[in-house]
Amino acid sequence: MAAKTGDGIRLLYDSAYLTARAFDVLFDPGRATKAMINTAMQANMKAAHGNESQLLPVPGSFLINTDGQIIWRHFDHNYKSRSTVTAILDAI
């Protein structure tokens, strides 16, 4: 991805889900959701993720200070519940 875009952004490939687990944003979507994603949406989660788990991350927002500490976070297993700009600015 970095080579394709040439933008110099550091990308993380978390094939073992270590970072997602550390941030507590990993979940198993369940059999029905996996079937919908793999069939109705014509995705192949096993191939895309490079393993058999088919786990998904929860969308999250994190504020991390210069010492590397998480000072604010928002995530919800309901992927439609996202942090608002107001909430983020208030936390800053």
Task: Outline the fold blueprint.
Elements: H1 2-5, H2 18-22, E1 26-27, H3 31-40, H4 45-49, E2 56-57, E3 60-64, E4 70-75, H5 85-91
Antiparallel strand pairs: 1-2, 3-4
What is the end-to-end distance? 30 Å
What is the helix content?
Answer: 25-40%
Q: Widest sheet: strand order?
A: 1-2
Number of strands: 4
Low confidence ranges:
none
Rounded radius of gyration (Å): 16 Å
Structural class: alpha+beta
Largest sheet: 2 strands, antiparallel
What oligomeric state best describes the polypeptide chains here? single chain
Could you report the average pLDDT, rounded to the nearest whole number? Answer: 85
List the total number of helices. 5
Form type: globular
Helix and strand sequence = HHEHHEEEH
Fraction of residues in β-strands: 15-25%
Describe the overall structure:
This protein is α+β, with helices and mostly antiparallel strands. 34% of the residues lie in helices and 16% in strands. The protein has a two-stranded antiparallel ribbon. A two-stranded antiparallel sheet has the order 3-4. The chain starts with a helix and ends with a helix. The model has no long low-confidence stretch (mean pLDDT 85).
